[in-house]
Amino acid sequence: MTEIRSTTELPARRRDIEMTTEDGLVLVGELSVPENADPVGTVLFLHPLPTAGGYMDSHILRKAALRLPAMAEIAVLRFNFRGVTSPRGTSQGVFGEGIDERFDLEAAVEFVRTEGLPTPWLVGWSFGTEVALNHSLDLDVAGLILLSPPLHRTSVATLERWNDNTTPIVAVIPELDDYLKPAEARERFAVIPRADIVEVGDGRHLWVGEKQASRVLSEIVERVNPSALPLPTTWP
Q1: Three-state SS at 219
Q2: Domains of the chain with CATH codes
């Protein structure tokens, strides 16, 4: 048996994908699905701030793609927002300040639909949480999982609009976050009474280290396929 480490790659079917946005841009990404089974759920990742180095290989996204198809029978879609480069390639366009990225999100949700995958859970991290909150209210999604939401670009009015539907919202808040600590998060998200605020002790905004990364992946799996918990620490 092999201990699972930060670079461990578990079995899955992985392929490079492209998506075209409504405003005509081609975005690059990767779809990872279980090797020998149909996925029981889908996770669609929205990466951190591009101008601060966020991209589809930001470590939580990469580890999810490397592990969750095998560990939890979850399909993982990750992609570069417009204008963002990774080893996979460069998505066309330029940074849209969290506004034009709505077209990127819409294209990704449509890609999931055309692939015949289960309705996706949106998993945003930092900047990605704001894209999710600001632009997915009318999209067909199973729920929102918000990792380290800064709420810089999301207004109270936008949060209140989420009371118009019943989409599950989970905010995973690091105790030592640089932007939004648990007490303030509870206050800010109070306008959405159903929002589930999960405080992670000793957690930090970037979720650095295997302990924090594993906790984040477990929080995701708890919502998407809880029967797969606890996640293994060795393989096979």
Answers
A1: helix
A2: 12-226 (3.40.50.1820)
